[in-house]
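Example record for the data management plan.
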Amino acid sequence: MKSKIRKKDESQESLVAAQGVGIDVSTQSAMATEHLQFLQTAGLDLGVGTEAWSVRGTNNQINYSTHGIYRYFGKFPAPIASKLVSDYTDVGEVVVDPACGSGTTGVEALLLNRDALLYDVNPLSTLISRVKTTPMSEEQLLGSLKEASNRFRRSRRTEIELPEIDLHHWFLPETIRQLSRIRHSIERQEDARFKEYLLLSFASIVRRVSRATTQQGRLFLDVSTAVEDVWPFFERAATRAAERIGALPKMRAVKVECRSVLDSNSEIRPVGPLVIYHPPYFNAYKYTSVNSLEMAWLSHSRKDTRKNEIREFFKVGKPENAEVYVEDVVRSLQVIRQYLQKDGVAAMMIGDTRLKGEYVRVTAPIISKVSSYFGLEKVILRIPRYTEASWASSQRRKSGDLGITMFDFIVLFKAV
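Corresponding structural encoding:
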């Protein structure tokens, strides 16, 4: 039996629709032949409900509310989270995201008058998610920025020791000095909430002022992007963030904790009707590597974080490693099942890959291996458009035909 689509909260949905974004849905009978053939190639023509979804809206339009205060490569699309929360939960219910990334699910839960539990193994992700979902006074936030500015002007600190990255490879000497002074000024902020807001604003400019390219998730040198006078970038980012955080609705709660999606323990209880899950993709890229500069400047160990992540084998390019990846995702889904109430839905966005020109399935094997505790509700082909397609193209690796596919999937499981 199909899961019941919940009654929509039209007043809250209008907040999203007003941004000019949404999801264009095609049923199976209306899908293009090439899209149906792609599902066959992926082994996902499984006789269940099948749709194609495409996000409507430009990047600027999609970055409404606090979504745009930190550029997070490969983040979960806000309109998809909005549709899932609207369709499968009622006002006041709890949504769980066990690999929350940049907190997209939490922001949409707030905007749609739901509570949320967010977890991630990466402390940078939990920082981003917490700040983006914690309503605070714009006036007070700007007051903390002014205090940090005063401390920055008085600071004589010139450089800082950071593990795991070569500072002088990625930053100009004056950039290092200014970033060190800004971080030192933030560390002296006593209020933890305002300190995290300033730290997130700081992290949001690290890549922009570095010698790394800003156009791709993976790190490549691009010296032309380097900036020496850092403070104006930080001040603009913090001012913009304060305005958006100050406008967050205050009627619901989002709880954020650092926890691996592979970590099963006796504390996990069924809490809600919906889990949204966006694991790393096999052979795409490592989130800790993409965010290595930011993690280093916040004194987070990339090596320690990697130990508890899903193994995705970026750059390795061996088909047999797909089995290890599938094993990890299956383990994570066993954990996810524990969060769901009876008849609850787990929505997983995931992608297959190509290795040396050969299509490698990971989604279909995962579905097969979790069939004892999840029924298959629906398979959705996500069709990128606008700059999503450009971003996906930028992540392709030409050497040896290693890389991700242009389409990915949203698999809806029903708890059994």
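Summary line stored alongside the record: The chain has 17 helices and twelve strands.
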